[in-house]
Amino acid sequence: MNTYARTYWFTWAFLVIAAALTGVASLKTAFFGGLFAALLSALLSKVYERGGPRYAPLIGATAGTLWVIAMFFRIRWFGYADDFQMAQWTLGTDISVHAAGFAGAALMTALIARTEFLKALGGGLLLAAAMTVIPYGFIAWIDHRVAGPVELVVLVSAEVAVDDGPIRRPGAVQANLTPAEILLLKERMLVVEGPGGIEVVDEQGRRYWPLVRRRLVYPGNPGGPVRTVLFLLPPGLVAAETWSVPVHQDPQGLGLVGLGAQNDVKFSGGPVSQAVRLDVSLAVKPKEGAVTYQSLQVEAFRKSPLGDLYANVRTQGIAAAFPTSLIDPKTPVNSEEKAKPRRPTFGGDPAAK
Q1: With the C-alpha atoms ordered 334, 336, 337, 340, is the resulting torsion angle positive or negative?
Q2: Which of 64, 135, 258, 302 has a C-alpha 20 to 30 A away from that of 25?
Q3: Domain ends where: 81, 111, 146?
Q4: How buried is residue 282: exposed, middle or buried, by Cβ count under 10 Å (0-12/13-18/19+)?
């Protein structure tokens, strides 16, 4: 009975401490989750004793891993969507913490029969701490390289007078460019200060303004290094499009992406990441002789060296800071309409401009 109690309280205490230090769960979740997980470890006390110090840690680590996988599928089948998303994010660290706690308790239980309690406790703590720190450090390194936030800056073209800028909608937040972003654009395009703020001019003379800035963040890594992607969305897109867009390999990298018709993507700015990509989808709707851009969705996909551990993160739609529209070349227009060329729009009625 004493061995059973020692195994139980060792496992529970270590799981709570390790979960709190590694940020796997809130203190409340770790407290009650550890209570139930420790029951399984305690039930295996006799198995640990028979396995001895050589095999007991392996048995404990296996039991801890199976426990986490069982809880993962329980949340998947019976839990809430937010809880399952968080479980996906913390699966690797959960396995590390539980395998360490179970293995440490198993070694302590196996040593108690052969040595004094303090030496057995010290051996269990040392093993559990080592098994927590090493995998957690590796997982944290992967998260740093792969799962940091991705910031999107969308630049679109609008049809305005040469000496004028786009009129922003009331309440629209202006997307400003950072000095590093301006420098990247200047290396490839003409960047000037116009009446509507910073504007970018391509080789065809089309003028672009920052439409929106949006950040995609994982719940488990909100403060990590930020990749930034500048999107150039040109006029002339009259059909729904979906682009598979790469991002910079550096977790703090800055890249420029030019989107075109028929899924054309031009990336510049440095080496491309093999673990992170963006899917950009554009929806259009013909309306009164024009093509109106209804929405722009961006979804981030990530793949770690250990597999697909991360849930996808998607925007909720990008609203325009200023109205733009595009004439559908297949639709006949009168002379008055020809005098008012239109360019892309994100939401809103272009006719109201």
Answers
A1: positive
A2: 302
A3: 146
A4: buried
